[in-house]
């Protein structure tokens, strides 16, 4: 597979697993997708913001060490985004508190856009920009995707102009089908929906494909959906079929479930 140039725009986050785990990992939709694309052998550029704090420095250094270009990562006054996660005795995760930090006000600059326009593809994660980044990239003819299932106000989400709209429907096949139709009706060229243990499906309104999951011994599902996006995009942008692209996403997601966090890293104790 040829080496492609991808950019990922949007969020980053420090996941702080509370007692009894007491460990912190770097993640976030956009960060996870960028790192996974780099690990798949592509040029991956991250556009986002972190605070001028220890978490920001750790985020920058960690993703750079995994091959992501951080030339357009901004370090701003304020704190890096973080999420406090409670873990129940049964192992379920409860997102107890989120602080979006300097991510809250991040939007790409005009200079950033000049670079984004040169990419083979741009993926957008969580971003509070009223859809500006999506529309500007689409208007310029840049191939663009977005995860529209992120926890964000609807005013910042939309599918019009997207080459690929990604969503998550849990394990509800009916919901997934409805979601895909909605994405296509509202302007996406291709709709891709994950269905948990029921696999994933994709449609452009003419073709339809679906696949199951790759069974693995699950360690942690954090970031599996983001890894699916990276795996799907690398195949789809290279010109593979919908079926092959879903399979690529499935395999990437399965690998991520075999370790803790959205990409391989050494967790750090919460200070």
From TrEMBL:
Segments forming domain Carbohydrate kinase PfkB: 26-124, 162-261
Domain of life: Bacteria
InterPro entries (UniProt xref): Carb_kinase_PfkB-like, Carboh/pur_kinase_PfkB_CS, PfkB_dom, Ribokinase-like
Keywords on record: Kinase, Transferase
Keyword Transferase applies: yes
Transmembrane segments: none
Family annotation (SUPFAM superfamilies): Ribokinase-like
GO MF annotations in UniProt: kinase activity
Family affiliation: Belongs to the carbohydrate kinase PfkB family.
Protein's name according to its UniProt entry: Fructoselysine 6-kinase
Organism listed in the record: Rhizobium grahamii
